[in-house]
From TrEMBL:
One GO BP annotation of this record: protein complex oligomerization
Membership in a protein family: Belongs to the HscB family.
Protein name in UniProt: HSC20 protein
Database matches in InterPro entries: HscB, HscB_C_sf, HscB_oligo_C, J_dom_sf
Transmembrane segments: none
Length: 130
């Protein structure tokens, strides 16, 4: 019985870890979308893929430049709102692409979402008092 109890504890720990990982994956639209691509056998876009249009890349560059400016609460709030709106828009578009079973479009949109997730991380780092 004692061995069985240890075995049950081990399985419980393993399953708990897997459940937490699954929850975190499904909680975030980007990681959820990447996981759905993986399930469908589609490789996610890599940083070396150059499918992003120039207007999109210019938009990302402009936001990066704004983030590089000296700390300004109004500026940071504006950037935060812009990033949030773009992420919500991209999430809706990715959802629609998956519903249409257009995996290549979903892949392109998820690549764009990665850029905004990166910007969000930079914004959070900038907001942390130093």
């Amino acid at each position: 019985f004692a061995i069985r109890l240890q075995k049950e504890q081990y399985y419980s720990e393993q399953h708990s870890s897997l459940i937490n990982k699954a929850y975190q994956t499904l909680l975030n639209p980007l990681s959820r979308g990447l996981y759905l691509l993986e399930l469908s056998g589609v490789e996610p876009a890599q940083e070396t893929d150059c499918d992003a249009d120039s207007a999109f890349l210019m938009e990302i560059m402009e936001i990066n430049e704004k983030l590089a400016e000296p700390k300004n609460k109004d500026n940071l709030g504006e950037i935060e709102t812009l990033i949030k709106v773009k992420q919500e828009e991209l999430t809706r578009e990715v959802t629609a692409a998956f519903e249409r079973d257009d995996l290549q479009e979903a892949k392109k949109l998820l690549a764009k979402m990665k850029y905004f997730a990166n910007l969000e991380d930079k914004l959070k780092a900038k907001k942390i008092p130093s």
